[in-house]
Specification:
Blueprint: H1 12-23, H2 28-45, H3 54-66, H4 71-88, H5 92-95, H6 113-121, H7 126-137, H8 142-146, E1 153-154, E2 159-162, E3 171-174, H9 177-193, H10 214-228, H11 236-249, H12 254-261, H13 266-270, H14 277-281, H15 286-294
Antiparallel strand pairs: 1-2, 2-3
Helix pairs in contact: 1-4, 2-4, 6-10, 7-9, 7-11
Length: about 300
């Protein structure tokens, strides 16, 4: 008896959009996000997206706001639909009706150096300790940590090569002697377990043919934070934030930190000046100056 396929066929419009995304070099995750947003728009519309008009887009955006969706989700849909209407359908007149939602940027959660040490010490095993060590010691994003390969560790030049990071950009990250030693400990243990191979993943997943997942790294950070008694809301990205903030507190030039983090804009890196305790403490408060004047002391 023949079985019926439950997989929905790919429509010509979706295939055309996917080809357009491939031609323009959009990353795999971006392509998946765009397709998901367009699919949601089509479900709301009840007909193919290429039959939409300006009022349909307006109703959809109002529906998203009324549903309580966050700015990141709403703006992600704007990007996806702009691509669909501008690039794939050539309808710039429709794309102009899409409105980006503004949102307040929250200050990132940052660990103290002592808390970072406690978190790494409490990591569930040497593999996770090494992976989280890379996130903190080199300031890598969780996806960048997950997709490192053995060959990306350059112990001669003391660099970590990050290929196709955010924005599909390559860059070099720092490799300290302490981090290199930690990675060597994991390399020896991984060889003993039979999961480390030349030119393979630095942090293999459940199968050595696949990299560790971002979800596994998130879970490891949360387990480590709980074991270490850290009450802050932490994630692998917290380690990247802490890396940048601690470098800033060591008087490393902010432009150097920008390069190490792979930020396109200095404004993004400048956010860490708002959470650096040393930057805040270095400023003499007006009350201190006032009291010094009242007491006849030099205000400094």
């Amino acid at each position: 008896m023949a079985t019926l396929s439950t997989v929905a066929p790919i429509t010509p419009l979706r295939q055309r959009m996917q080809h357009d995304m491939q031609l323009r070099g959009l990353g795999r995750h971006t392509q998946q996000d765009y397709v998901r947003h367009v699919r949601r728009f089509a479900a709301f519309l009840g007909r193919p997206p290429d039959a939409a008009n300006v009022d349909d887009l307006r109703r959809f955006q109002l529906h998203q706001h009324d549903s309580g969706l966050g700015p990141a989700t709403i703006n992600g849909a704007v990007s996806a639909l702009r691509f669909l209407f501008t690039v794939t359908l050539g309808r710039r007149d429709l794309a102009r009706g899409l409105v980006v939602t503004r949102y307040r940027r929250k200050l990132p959660e940052v660990l103290s150096i002592e808390e970072a040490a406690q978190l790494l010490e409490a990591a569930p095993g040497i593999k996770y300790k090494a992976a989280l060590g890379v996130a903190y010691g080199a300031g890598l994003r969780v996806s960048e940590v997950a997709h490192l390969k053995v060959d990306d560790i350059d112990s001669t030049r003391m660099l970590i090569r990050v290929e196709q990071g955010k924005g599909r950009k390559d860059r070099n990250a720092m490799l300290s002697p302490q981090l290199l030693e930690l990675l060597r400990l994991w390399w020896r243990e991984g060889k003993r377990r039979g999961v480390m191979f030349p030119h393979g993943w630095l942090f293999p997943g459940r199968s050595y043919t696949d990299p560790i997942s971002s979800r596994q790294l998130h879970r490891a950070v949360q387990e480590a934070a709980e074991a270490a008694g850290i009450r802050k809301r932490v994630s692998p990205h917290t380690l990247r934030h802490s890396f940048a903030t601690h470098l800033l507190e060591q008087d490393v030039d902010i432009r150097v930190i920008q390069v190490l983090l792979g930020h396109s804009k200095l404004d993004t890196t400048a956010l860490y000046t708002k959470v650096s305790t040393r930057t805040i403490h270095a400023v003499a408060g007006p009350l201190d100056r006032l009291m010094a004047l009242m007491e006849g002391k030099p205000s400094g």
